[in-house]
Structure formats: C-alpha cells, structure tokens
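User: Before I run my own analysis I want an independent prediction to cross-check against. Here's the chain; please return only the structure tokens and, at the end, one sentence I can use as a sanity check.
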Amino acid sequence: MGSLENGVLPLKRDPLLKSLSRNERNSSFGQRPRSRFARFMVVKKLDYLQWICAVAVFIFFVFVFQMFLPLSTMEKAGEGFLKQKDDDTFDGELKNLFQEFSGLDFGEGVKFEPTRLLLKFQRGNKDFNDFNNLSFEGSRKVVRFGHRKPQLAFVFADLLVDPQQVLMVSVAAALRSIGYEIEVYSLEDGPVHAVWKNIGVPVNIVEANNDTKIIIDWLNYDAILVNSLEAKDAISGLLQEPFKSLPLIWTVHEKALATRLKKYVPDDQHPLIDDWKTVFHRASVVVFPNHVLPMYYAAFDAGNYFVIPGFPSNACKLDNSMTVFEENLRKNMNIGAHDLVIAITGSQFLYKGFWVEHALVLQALSPLLAEFNADDNTSQHLRIIFLSQDLSGNYSAAIEEIASNLNYPNGTVNHATVDDDDDVYKILSIADLVIYGSFLEEQSFPDILVKAMCFEKPIIAPDLTVIKKYVDDKVNGYLFPKTNINVLTQIMLQLASKRKPSSLSRNIASIGKHTAKNMMVLESVEGYASLIENVVNLPSEVASPRAVSEIPSNFKTEWQWRYFEDVSDSKYVNRSLRIDRFLNKLENRSNRTRKDGFADVSADDTFLYSIWEEEKSIQTALAKKRREDGELRDRSEQPRGTWEEVYRSAKKADRNKNDLHERDDGELERTGQPLCIYEPYFGQGAWPFLHSGSLYRGIGLSSKGRRSRTDDVDAPSRLPLLSIPYYRDALGDFGAFFAIANRVDRIHKNSWIGFSSWRATAKEASLSKTAEAALLDDIQAHRHGDALYFWVRMDKDPRNPMQQDFWTFCDSINAGNCKFAFSEAFKKMYGVNDNSTYVPPMPVDGGSWSVMHSWSLPTKSFLEFVMFSRMFVDALDAQMYAEHHQSGFCYLSLSKDKHCYSRVLELLINVWAYHSARRMVYINPTTGKLEEQHNFKTRRGKMWIKWFNYKTLKSMDEDLAEEADSDHPNHRWLWPSTGEVFWQGMYEKERSQMRRQKEKRKQKSKDKIQRIKNRTHQKAIGKYVKPQPDNETVNNLTPVLEAVKLLR
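Assistant: Structure tokens:
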C-alpha cells in the first residue's frame, strides 16, 4: 500500500485549507513563512484599527468555542436514561488505535491510495503489451490455445451463513458466467455447503488442527482466494515452496486483530506479531471492504493492500426479533413508547472538528424543542442519542455540556457507546430517525447508514460525494448541504411536524431498505473480477476469461440472497464471537510455544530438585570414570600401528567427512533391490506428498528445503549448477536427473532407476502397492527387456482435455512454439545449417505418452538418456538464455515465467525412447496392469534411429568433452556444468600425469640420497686407540676358537 508505507498515513487537506509547500516547510527558523492570514493582511494593507478588531473577534470566537468544548470537565455520574458502559470495560487497545488518527483538523481527510499495487498492475499491463509486440527468433509469436478454463480456489474457515458467504457466492456466480471454474475448500462444514453445490461448485472439507497441515496441491489452481482471518492456517501452507509464488488474494473483513495488536507489543508477543506479519506479506493482494480497515492494519502493510467497496449488510437479512423487543428496549432505556428518538452518528475517524459538527447538528435540531413539552412527564419527549465508540473519558460530559449551552432540557441528549453490531442494532431498532452528522469527505459509504437503511429508518445526511452516489434526496433518504446547516432544520421540522415521523418519511425509508439490500453490488463484483484479471498470469493452454463488462446484469444488480432462502439453518452466525475465540486460541498456542522454549518450573519444586541432583551426581560419576580410564590407558602400552595404517585411516575419514547421514534401514533395504525410484521436490510444501518406503528416495533441489532425518539426496551438492536459482527453476525436475547421473556409481547402485513426481501423488496417480509389486516382478523377469515403464498418461492429463496428439499437446502448453524449439535445438545439436524444420515424428497409433516425469529405466539406458538430454538442454539454453535472463520472457510462455523450457523437457523422454527403439510400457498405477504402447511393428520407417544411436551420441559427447577439456572456451557454455566431462584422451592425460608424478617422486628420492652423500662430515678432534688384550686372556681363548672352527 503505497500510501501507508512505513506506517505513515498520507493526509490530504481540503482545497480550502491547503498545506504549506515543501520549500516553506524546509525554510529556516529565522525566515519562517507567514501564514495565509498574515499574507492577506499585509497585501490588503489593513490599518491598525482593523488589526485590533480582527484580533478581538478571534479571541471572542476562541472563548465561545471553549464554552462548547468542556474537555476538562469530568464525566458526570448522573442517572441518564441510557445505561452507559463503564470505561474500564472498553477496549483500551482500540482507544489507542483511534487516537493515532485524532490529529486531524476540521475539514481534512485521510485517504487510502494503493499506489504501489496500482503501479505494479500498470507495469504488468505494459510488459504484457510489450511482450505481445515482441518477435522471437525473427518471426516467432506466442499463441494461446485455451483448452481448459482458468481454475480458482475459494478457501473458507467454515460454511456457516453470514454476509461473507453471500458476497463470495455472488462473486463466484459472476466469475463463472465469464469463464472461470471454481472449487471451494473449507476447514469446517456448514449449511452453505448446499448453496455451493446448487450453483455447481464442488466443495472439499479439509480437516486441519494444530498438529496437521492442510495437504493440497495448490499448483492445480491459477489463483487462490482466502476469506477471513480464521482461514490463516490455509495461508500458512502457502508460505513454503513450491506454492510461494502462487497468486493469493486474501479478503479481510474483521478489525478484531487490529484492536489486539497494541496489546501484543507490551506483552512481548513479538513472535505472534511476526507470524501475522509474515502471513500479510505473503498475500499478493489483501482486500478490504472499506477504506478504514487498511489504516487499522497499517502495521502489517507491505504495499499489497487494496479496497473493493461493497459488502452485504447483515442487518438487511436479520429477522424481526429486534422489532418485537423494541418496547422492552425502550423501557430498559427509560424511553417512552411514543417518544421521538433521533440517533446521530458520524465518521469512524476522530478529528478535532467533530466537536463543532456535534454542536452544529444540535443547534439545527434545537427548534424541535418547541414541539415537545419537557415539563409534562406524561406527554411525548424528544430523545437524541449520539452513537460512537467511547474514545475519551469525557465524551459524554462534553456532549451534555454542549447540549446544556444550547438550552436542551436535562436528559434529552445522551451518548451511547457501541462496541459491536449488537449495540448498533439495539439503538437503531428504537430510533425513529438517523442523522449522519459528519462533514468529513470519505472514500467509502458509511456502514452505519447502510444498517440504518436496512432497519427502514429514514436517514438524513450531508451531501458528501460518496453519499450522493447512492442516496437520492427525498427518494431513498434526505440530503442537506454541508455548507448550509439550516436546511437540516427545515428537513427535521417537516419529518417531525406531528412529533412523529411522517408517512412520507416511512415510504422513503422503505425504498431505502431496498437500496441498502443490494448496495454496491456492481463495484464489488466488477472489482473482484478486475483484480483477478490483473493478478493472474494464465498459461497458454488456459482460455482467457471474457471481459468484465460481459458479466450479466443480474449478477451486478443484486446480491445472491435467493440461494440462501432455502437453507435449513439460515440463522446468521456471530462472526465477532468466533473471531475472538480464534484469536484467543492463537494466543494460547503462542504462549504454550514460548513456555516450551524455556525451563518450566513445576509446582513440586522439591521433586524437580531431587531429579536434578540425581542427574548431576550421575554425570559427575561418569566424568570421573572417563578420567580414570584415560589415565590407565596412558600408563599401559598401546599398539600404535604402522604409519601406513594411520595414513589409510586418515584418508578414509576424509572421504567420509561429507556424509550427511548414517545408513538407515531404508538405505540398507534399498541396496538389495533392483529398482530405486527418486522423487524430486523443491520446498517443504511437497513433503506431505513424498513416499517413505525403501523403494523411494527423495532428492531435494534446494539444500534449504530438504527433509531432516532422512537419506534424501542433496542435488546442489552433487551438481553445483542447481545452486543457481535461474537454472534450478528453468530445469525443474531435470536438474535431479543430471544430479543423479553425475558420478552415478557413488550414489546409485541398483540396476534400474526410476523417477516419480510428487504431483502425481497429489493427483492420486502414483504407484500403489499392487502396481509396485507388478513393476518389480516384470523387471526381474525381463519380460520387456530394455524398456521405459511409465504410469502417468498424457491422455489423462487435465491439461489435455481435447485428447490431442503429442506435438499439438506440446505446442498448447508452450505457447505454440514447442516444435520450433525442438527443431532449433536438434539443428544446433547435430550441426545442421538448414532453414527446414527438423522434428522427429510422434505418430498417432492408439498409444499414449508419458508426462510428469514418472517413469523407470535400466540405469545404463538412463545414463544414455542423460547424455542425449545434456546436449539437448545446452542447445535449448543457447537460443533462449539471453532474452529470458534479461527480460524474463521466452517464446514458450505467454508471460514472465521462470520455468521457461521445463514443459518441453517434460516430454523429452518420449522422443528419446521412441526413436532409440526402446519398448514403452504403461503400468496402471492402481491395478498394476501392464500395456505396451507404440508396438515395434507400427514404428517401422518412422524412427530416427541414426540420430539417436548410442555410438552417434557418444561420439558427440566426446567431441564436446574434448572441446571443454582442451580449448577451455571463455564464452558462456552450459554443457560442462550439467555433468561429467570425459573423453578417451583423458585416459592418456591421466597416465601421463601419473607417469610424471612417479618420475618426480623418484627424482626427489635420488636428490635426497645424493644430498646425504654429498653432506660434509666434521673431522674427528682426536683418534681413539684400542688397547691390546692381555696375553693370559688370549691364551685362554685359543682352545675355544679352535673348537668353533672344527664345528664349522
């Protein structure tokens, strides 16, 4: 919300009271600009006598004004006929919230302008127009096929009868009339379930509580509309990838959260505030029914606030119980049955001028006092009630003081505090006339006037712009010029000439009720239709809805009350009470979470202390034992091993240092199986759809969104290319194929490999236990040999309701340019310099094709497919990267799309399998029945085998590897980053490198020996002479030496 950014409210003054210019505001203190009044006095050159008179008049006016504003007077405790509510019971947070807007002078206005959002829509429309004028590759244009209708999801907290349901049913009926398909999700069931079914909208009841999340594949829908604060849990599921970028429109009608926000800050509930702020920021657009609520929620504003005026009034469909109890209400309020009761209401904003407005209205009503005898207790009396939220403690005292100064009898004028709709309904039910006493220009029609009109009360209001738009003078209400308050006096004298409302006023009130019952339907219906049109970017296979102007008139002139007439339980729910319970539940949940994060102190402190002492003694004993064991180990002789053993242990530890998990049971079971099926996913939103059996293994495309305590593969760590968001989004699940194939022997040791999309699980198209057993049995029996097994068919895809052939379907989901993209990529791969179109034929022979990356292959064949795919993706990226990376547009999509060519890659497996002469077998995901598609007999003469031959592809792969390894090109090239770079010459390079290393080590050893030999030795200082042995000793040893010689 551009106008409420950073919590600053834009104040737009009335033209009569323009603010100072920026230069004047920034002028120095010594050169402060003179006021308009001062400039006027100087220009007119008034003399000093006129100056003195002007100052005297001004002082007199201030004195009179203060007499009418006794703000310092304490509220009197008189016994009025209305039972006032105690100030202590009033919500102090709401009081503080309103006081933020109390700095407005009389005649000023606060306006809400969704500046940032409108600029975003304008940029989107400009980009769309520019994109339509673009021509790619010289002559390529994008085409919309429109084979299915746009899908919308409506999410509710419950299906109870309330005005919100009436609004959404009316909007849904209008949207369906121009080509939208709608599906309803609700957290609770209710009577409105039947209403949605009657208009042809399917309803799904989703069970959600604190422990479980809503499990829905939101990618099936083009936009999501969430209603009410109570549906927050549904929005929480959209905060994670892959649902984070979906268009989300959140309609908020309640102000209860805004009133509690002030309490959260002093209570140190910052996590709760941050949680709500995150949810508000996630919404693409937050829609409010009036221009006041955006200012209440200014603290959560992220520039995404929008106002669509119009909301069915609950008062128009209330039963007549209020009328039945009107006499009781008057009696409880000390009002006579025949007294004339006038209710005066005003703006929801507080500004200093509203005291003057009250005084002016009371002055205009003072002539009515002559019609009533205040001294006669038995006759009729005049009762005037001011309705407002008690925002200051002396409000009632100020009203009574103003009335006293205008000579109103004591007890005639009173103030009634209204905190919710029930309080408003009670006052309106006993009122005979309702006056709107605010002269402030606002953007929304006052809700209090709609309720008064629904109660068939004659309304009198100033001729404000927004009021004149819906109220015609003396037709469905009365208007008086705000510049001439005397007209109000004339109107009141006509309406209450006989001390009761005239018959003409009752007829006008009856017409007013009909007007209020269907007020602002056009603005609301067209507002939602236009907003959805601006927010949603429809893919090329989706038909564009008809223009907003083509909505039938019956949907734009009345709310669809008729659908609710036959509802068995049509009693309106107390939404305020339910939202309070919901907010209390969230606060309790947040408090429990905070308490769990700290060490709780139990009531039995002695018991906890004994446990702590016991644990402390155990830890002390263990530490002492470890220390003693270490001392004994140091004193005893330990086998150290050889240096080679230490070196091998160190190398083994270095190889295993990057392992992210221990080998769990699932991984051990998977080792002995012939097949492992990988499930690529991106973000926590896909977790509920992933399998947990030993046959499956997840592969996360992002390190941040991987599941914990599982053996999921971290794709970016295996293929650094996926760390780049652009290629992670553009490749999609193909990034997982490249990551697994890169040094496949380190992670995949099974003879067969498979992939399954989590979206297939969401569509209930994944393999059942029966189908898994049938697939494993067929693989182990080698019934079909080197075959491609798939279990999601193209003819069952919701994107293909027309049962189109392969290339037509591919064109429909790629803006009509699929065949062109294939042809250009093929020509670049194979070096064909020709303007002809080279597209492998995919004939219609009664068989189907694989979609959604759900298939299985022998591991050897999978590596061959990846080898082909790497070259194809490189050729595809070369022709699209420059334009797509710079502008976000590509000729395979109608709008900015970060998944530009992922839809082309989705069908690539079929082209490769068909033309590489592999069997294609469909396995029913429910029953496990196998059906071979595209029999070899029907393929003869149609396959491009020489283009897809393994030797051809291998030679192309080695040529690219040699170029990458030898030439080291400096230009941007995708192919080396998609996997291993290997060719035959690398063997010789490795041998040569090993030979050089071996010779280098030998040379180092020789040099070391030579250095030792050439080392200079220090000469001895003296010579040691061994003494001669004694003769006796020598003679004794002679026989022994002779005996030794004989033994030898």
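Sanity check: The radius of gyration is 42 Å.
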